[in-house]
């Protein structure tokens, strides 16, 4: 790696001031698990990195409101999210998903904000966050704004963040009676990068689907909701025919990309099958 300057601001305001929006060689760094790999490979050669590791306080907090809504600081580690009793109670799908997200060494260092801001379509947290209706708080020189996670992700390694904006927190709404599941297919070890990820969050009214949020990732350029499959499920009772139709609708709607983990045709077949499996898994998770 080439030499670079490392700045360690003690406040959010100082961190934002150190990020030059007109200099692409200046970049914030949180856990650094992805950015350091890019630097070692020579893909990114920074002039300055602005470390966020000293931004503690609310930036690392994980708290739950009486309603069940979760507030997660962007500098909270993925391991902290995995083991938080608040998350276990309010959104257990997140804790289950974390157990197969890379390995414990990465989860101890990687942060919630970094996992979302990186824009990698293979990440496990974004599709689950979208399925749960999560949103992020973003702060920049002109103040703060809030974005749904599905609006934050705009393309392959691309987000709606301006170059001098930082994610400060993630909010996961109360799930109440909703049920959720996340399934992924890996071509290597169980914790490898996925060839396909499917997240499903279902609200039931008796035996009928009241509302559904279905998200595909890894096989697409960004984590993406499948609106056609969602509409097909809404108002229907879960049975083999409905799940088969939802799988067909998802496979027809998603813009699939191939990579080292599988061809586009292979991933489309996976999606066709795993839509039904994710919905059945969500239906079985009565406390999610």
Point out poorly predicted stretches: none
Structural classification: alpha+beta
What is the average of the pLDDT values? Answer: 93
Calculate Rg over CA atoms. Answer: 19 Å
Please report which band the strand proportion falls in: under 5%, 5-15%, 15-25%, 25-35%, 35-45% or over 45%: 25-35%
Helical run tally: 12
Helix content: 25-40%
Write down the CATH class of the largest domain: Alpha Beta
Number of strands: 14
Give me the CATH architecture of the largest domain, please.
2-Layer Sandwich
Strand order of the largest sheet: 4-5-10-6-7
What would the CATH topology of the largest domain be? Uridine Diphospho-n-acetylenolpyruvylglucosamine Reductase, domain 3
Order of helix and strand elements from N to C terminus: EHEHEEEHHHHHHEEHEEEEEEEHHH
Shape verdict: globular
The major beta sheet can be summarized as: 5 strands, antiparallel
Distance, first to last CA = 44 Å
Instruction: Give the number of domains.
Output: 3
Q: Please, what is the oligomeric state?
A: single chain
In short:
This protein has 12 helices and 14 strands.
Task: Walk me through what this model shows.
The structure is a single chain. By secondary structure, the chain is an alpha+beta fold. The protein has three domains: 5-51, Uridine Diphospho-n-acetylenolpyruvylglucosamine Reductase, domain 2 (2-Layer Sandwich); 59-172, Uridine Diphospho-n-acetylenolpyruvylglucosamine Reductase, domain 3 (2-Layer Sandwich); 179-284, 2-Layer Sandwich (Enolase-like, domain 1). 34% of the residues lie in helices and 26% in strands. It has helices at residues 12-18, 35-40, 78-83, 85-90, 92-98, 104-109, 112-117, 125-131, 149-152, 227-233, 240-253, 264-284, and strands at residues 5-7, 26-29, 48-51, 62-64, 70-73, 135-140, 143-148, 153-155, 158-159, 166-172, 179-186, 194-205, 208-217, 224-225. The strands form four sheets. The chain has a five-stranded antiparallel β-sheet with strand order 4-5-10-6-7. Helix 11 (240-253) packs across helix 12. It is globular, with a radius of gyration of 19 Å.
């Amino acid at each position: 790696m080439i030499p670079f300057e490392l700045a360690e601001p003690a406040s959010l305001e100082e961190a934002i001031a150190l990020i030059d929006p007109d200099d692409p060689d200046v970049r914030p760094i949180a856990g650094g698990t992805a950015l350091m790999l890019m630097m070692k490979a020579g893909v990114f050669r920074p002039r300055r990195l602005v470390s966020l590791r000293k931004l503690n306080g609310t930036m690392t907090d994980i708290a739950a409101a009486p309603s069940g809504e979760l507030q997660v600081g962007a500098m909270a580690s993925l391991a902290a999210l995995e083991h938080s009793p608040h998350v276990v109670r309010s959104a257990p799908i997140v804790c289950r998903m974390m157990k197969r997200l890379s390995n414990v060494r990465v989860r101890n260092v990687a942060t919630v904000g970094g996992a979302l801001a990186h824009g990698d379509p293979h990440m496990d947290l974004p599709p689950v966050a979208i399925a749960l209706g999560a949103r992020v708080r973003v702060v920049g020189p002109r103040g703060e704004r809030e974005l749904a996670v599905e609006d934050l992700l705009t393309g392959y390694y691309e987000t709606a963040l301006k170059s001098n904006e930082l994610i400060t927190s993630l909010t996961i709404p109360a799930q109440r009676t909703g049920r959720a599941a996340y399934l992924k297919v890996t071509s290597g070890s169980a914790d490898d990068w996925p060839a396909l990820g499917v997240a499903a969050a279902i609200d039931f009214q008796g035996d009928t689907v009241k509302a559904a949020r279905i998200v595909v990732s890894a096989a697409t350029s960004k984590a993406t909701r499948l609106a056609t499959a969602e509409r097909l499920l809404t108002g229907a009772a879960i049975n083999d025919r409905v799940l088969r139709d939802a799988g067909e609708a998802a496979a027809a709607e998603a813009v699939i990309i191939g990579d080292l983990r599988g061809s586009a045709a292979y991933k489309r077949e996976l999606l066709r099958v795993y839509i039904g499996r994710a919905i059945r898994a969500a239906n079985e998770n009565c406390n999610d």
